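name: query_chain
kind: protein
chains: 1
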Amino acid sequence: MCSIGDARGHTIIYNGKNWKYEDTNEIVDENNPRPCKHCGKFPTKEDHDACLGILPNVQAACCGHNSGRQPPYVIFDNNEYMEFKNQQEMYDYFGINKNG
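structure:
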């Protein structure tokens, strides 16, 4: 049985052994990530989405990549999970100016 996921806007499929990119069938390599499908930027060295930068008190974040499968979310340092309706709501919450 396969599972479908998302890696920075790229569709990935789990075949029971590995996560692979749907378009090329190559194995997802966390040490060699693809750029975001939406903005074209690679993640930061901390593995945050480049369009978000480093967010305060956040251990993980996803901008949603406009993929439709993964809503924007953050996981705070205290492991609290927060999901947003869209990218703009997330930008507003953290005071991110996406135009600057």
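note: The chain has a mean pLDDT of 85.
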